[in-house]
Amino acid sequence: MIFKDRFKDKVMILTGAARGIGRATALRAAQEGAVMVLADRLQDQGEETLKMIKDAGGDGIFLPLDLSIEENAETLVRKAVEAYGRIDIAINNAGVMGKPNPVHLLPKEDMDYTFANNFYTVFFCCKYELRQFMEQGNSGIIVNNASIAGMTGLEGNPAYNASKHAVNGLTKNLALDYQRYGIRVNSVNPSGTKTPMVDEAYAYVKGKIDAAVAAGVDPKEIANMGGRKRMPIIDRQAEPEEQAAAILFLASDDASYMTGATLQTDGGWTSF
Ligand SMILES: NC(=O)c1ccc[n+]([C@@H]2O[C@H](COP(=O)([O-])OP(=O)(O)OC[C@H]3O[C@@H](n4cnc5c(N)ncnc54)[C@H](O)[C@@H]3O)[C@@H](O)[C@H]2O)c1
Question: Can you tell me which atom of ligand 1 is nearest the CA of 97?
Fold first, then answer.
């Protein structure tokens, strides 16, 4: 169901807008009236998302930025305000799966890469979004995209697991620290969703398994992804549009009594 005009004239920042859950969220928010400030480091696909919005009669801008660099997060908010005078909603969705490896085989650079793109992107964006909300007055809505891996253990990918717990920890802190400014901060926690990120991660793991088998090594020694628990209660992957629906619920006034929530959008994954 589309709630026509739910975000009419709201200025919405959305990171990771070039593909996957971000693109689905951008398209639906624009359909419901939001003016979109899109950011991603994938320039061509980000511009394609913006074109899809404009072709459907929506409005917005796209900024090609790597948001793991603090000054780029500041630029994102500044350009949004230069273009539209304010921001109303911010969805910090950009993230990576990284290179899944158990801790005893995990180079520090891989841990740093995953934290840079999953945690520091959210920290930097929140920092400048919050400053802008505080300057504007008594309101503001932030939705961060974490993961089931921010709520439970995730086999085989400790960097992703730890970085997403950090996103949920930050979300809860922000809800506490900024309620006095009328700012709500929540997160969504998806399970497996049909996006390029998942395809790329599984291709990486498959490559490792194939190499192990070729070398006569037991693949369990190096790749343990999805070993114990395979499916949520709803036994299929989510569509990106289903995640977009939950993100935009939290971003809407229907969630006016929600802050500090880590909403499970996981087909029941974390309930058993
Ligand atoms: N797909 C899933 O199964 C799943 C499950 C749980 C959580 N998530 C989370 O949902 C979010 C979106 O993931 P997706 O599945 O749509 O993946 P995706 O790879 O399709 O999209 C993520 C986008 O974020 C962008 N991005 C990453 N790091 C960036 C950076 N430093 N600066 C700017 N852009 C950056 C990428 O370029 C990409 O376009 C991520 O935070 C991911 O961790 C996804």
Answer: 43
User: Which residues are CB-neighbours of 44 under 8 A, at least 6 positions away?
Assistant: none
Residue 160 a catalytic site member: yes
CA atoms lying within 13 Å on the CB side of residue 131: 12
Indicate the SS3 state at residue 15.
Answer: strand
Residue 113, classed as helix, strand or coil, is: helix
Question: Domains of the chain by range and CATH?
Answer: 11-267 (3.40.50.720)
- pTM value is 0.97
How crowded is residue 59: how many other Cβ atoms within 10 Å of its Cβ? 16
Atom of ligand 1 nearest to the CA of 22: 16
Active-site hit among 84, 120, 128, 160: 160
Ligand 1 touching residue 68 (CB < 6 A): yes
226 has a pLDDT exceeding 70: no
Q: How far is ligand 1, taken at its centre, from the CA of residue 254, in Å? A: 25
Is-contact 156 226, C-beta < 8 A?
yes
Q: Which of 70, 75, 125, 197 to mutate to test the pocket of ligand 1 (most atoms within 8 A of CB)?
A: 197
Nearest CA to ligand 1 atom 7: 147
- For 135-184, the pLDDT digits (tens) are 999 899 999 999 999 999 998 899 999 999 999 999 999 999 999 999 99
Rg (CA), the chain: 18
Q: How far apart are CA 19 and CA 46, in angstroms?
A: 7
203-224 tens-digit pLDDT: 888 888 888 888 887 777 666 6
User: Which amino acid, one-letter code, is at 152?
Assistant: T
CB atoms within 10 A of CB 185: 29
Q: Does residue 69's CB lie within 6 angstroms of at least one atom of ligand 1?
A: no
